Amino acid sequence: MRQLHDKVAIVTGASSGIGEATAKLFAREGAKLVLAARRRAELDVVVDEIGREGGEAVAVAGDVRDEGLAKELVATAIARFGGLDIAFNNAGTMGEMAPTQEISSAGWRDTLDTNLTGAFLGAKYQLPAMLGRGAGSIIFTSTFVGHTVGLPGMAAYAASKAGLLGLVQVIAAEFGAKGIRVNAILAGGTDTPMARAVANTPELRAFIEGLHALKRLARPEEIARSVLHLASEASSFVTGTAMLVDGGVSIVRA
């Protein structure tokens, strides 16, 4: 049997990268999907591709900084598929990148609003729906940046993603007895459009690849498989964790 047979899942940031790869993998594993991203046209392409492979998905375009989107995603999951079992709060941004003293207050707020507050808003409305089912799995996309490695110019990004780990621990403690598991993945460098915008020269890409023990970037599909593990019953005794999926970048020092 497929690992997510008849489960209902929300995936944000689903129009490309890790979110897209995870949405397609979830669909192949039997999940019914509510997909969110800001870019409607790209999101519709993902929904169409899932449908052509026999899966079920619906698109809801919007910005995770908008509390109304968080409500709409859960309402759509309930109205279209009868409930909610899994949420992958993945949408994020690199944000304004500069030495810390040069980051604008607006850039700082925008990064935290997207990466941290957006994830909080998602969970805020996902939790009641999962309580109604008596179980659920919430997964957040964090990163090694700000956890095991500090990279210059990334203060806002690192702070926002590190903040997710505190959120994970508290929600896991609050709702574990009620059957809801909450975890984060700490992704290493991944070959996504967002990452390519940062590693925008062959020399910079080679440098970032060299930081990893595997000496390469991850494919989005590799990260998606770890998300599937946390979403499925394969991880039924795992909650409150920050799971490294980082190609060894956290342990390489040369």
Structural description of this entry:
This protein has 254 residues and is α/β, with parallel strands linked by helices. It has a single domain, classed as 3-Layer(aba) Sandwich (Rossmann fold), CATH 3.40.50.720. It has a 7-stranded parallel beta sheet, sandwiched between helices. Helix 2 links the parallel strand 2 and strand 3. It is globular, with a radius of gyration of 17 Å. The N and C termini lie far apart (44 Å).
Short description:
A 7-stranded parallel β-sheet has the order 3-2-1-4-5-6-7, with helices on both faces.
Topology (elements, then pairings):
Blueprint: E1 8-12, H1 17-28, E2 32-37, H2 40-52, E3 56-61, H3 67-81, E4 86-89, H4 105-133, E5 136-143, H5 155-175, E6 180-187, H6 193-198, H7 202-210, H8 220-231, E7 242-245
Parallel strand pairs: 1-2, 1-4, 2-3, 4-5, 5-6, 6-7
Helix pairs in contact: 1-8, 3-4, 4-5
